[in-house]
Amino acid sequence: MPSYTWLTLTQAQNALAARLADPNNTFWTLPELLFYIAESLRTWNALTEQWNSDFVFSATPDVVWYPVGTMAGSPRLRTLTDAYLYSVMQYQLLEPATGAAAWTGTSQFSLADLQFALQRRRDEMIQVTGCNLWPIGLPSTPNTRRTVFADSSLEPRRARWLPAGGSPVTMNREDNLAWDGFEPSHLQQTGPPANWSVIAGPPLAMDVDVAPNVPGTFDLLSLQSGIPFAPPTATLLCVPDDFSWVAKWGALADLLGRESEATDRSRADYCLQRYSDGLKAMKASNWLLLATLNGVPCDTPSVRDMDGFSPEWQNNATAWPSLVTAGIDLCAPCPTGNSGVSCTLVGNAPVPVLPGDFVQISRDAFDLILDYAQHLASFKQGGAEFASTKDLAKNFFQFAMETNKRLAKRGLFSDLLHQEGIRQDEDQPR
Questions:
Q1: Which domain holds residue 274?
Q2: Which of 45, 58, 65 is nearest to 160 (CA)?
Q3: In a designed cystine with 200, which of 17, 176, 331, 365 is the match (CB 3.0 to 4.6 A)?
């Protein structure tokens, strides 16, 4: 992949330290500065979606759905953990940065405070943006219309019924009142269910219009909560790396907004605004641009569209070649089977690690990256010192908007290209 080779991490850290008038790293250590530079780079890529990268994998007949956020070699591999964000939060709260290890800071906070604030906001983030979608299977019981999910399920998005013998049925999402009106005898019938609903039952329950008359399995796409955090073990966040900062701002809003010795209403309000803005940006973000199957360009329809125009495409060897998209980072090659898949994804921002690593940013944008990193570093100062850096953040976001306007002029269909990965939410709003 092409790369920038004009600026090392050490040079970037020194430039940031000079901005902060701390050349000897007395108040901001080098590891702390790396956190702020990394967050600036990730935020920049989250807003401008520039690090496009090709990803190739082989599809096999026994697998339908492929989560590109967890596949080895993926440019969108989810790598960040709760321990990473604890460290960032500890720096910004003027506490010792011990990550998920034992708390050694002040009585204003505790590791449990950070853990539960971050976990709550992370799961809320997953629900709002739909970024942790997984295929799951639940057994269906004959003559029973209701099926119960595990409490890790947040929301089912699609349902198929797979009878032990016979043909699968991709069910439509409807509601119980529609069944009462259009299928008045559905409660007395058994047979293959054609529709499902979660609107009239209790939480974690799914009803079908007609009770299955034979054993089978419900094949579902379900939004799942993230893995519970369990310090001192580091746990994956289960959200895209470039949007990890969204959960961090939400957690900081909770920590600084509660009634305690740590209360700071002004910064809590600021953090909540950043969290809300981050959720909006993530809901509108793209992750997939192009795809080919066996070297031939193919369409990338939503699963809603595919189910409507090519019913039971999963079992149709002659279905129109496509890469079906279900939500952020989840796709299925169609027809299902042996095929070589190549897709162009919006990859993670490259983040330098070692002192000699090059910072992957263009010359025109680096000063804005420093602006935002300085703003992040000043958060722990609070008060007037932090407030005085808000114009730096404004410069950063304004330049991101101007960059997006410029990038939009580079192609004939750039507006469509950057909507390929969000078709499902457009076709089936949540």
A1: 82-131+227-286
A2: 65
A3: 176
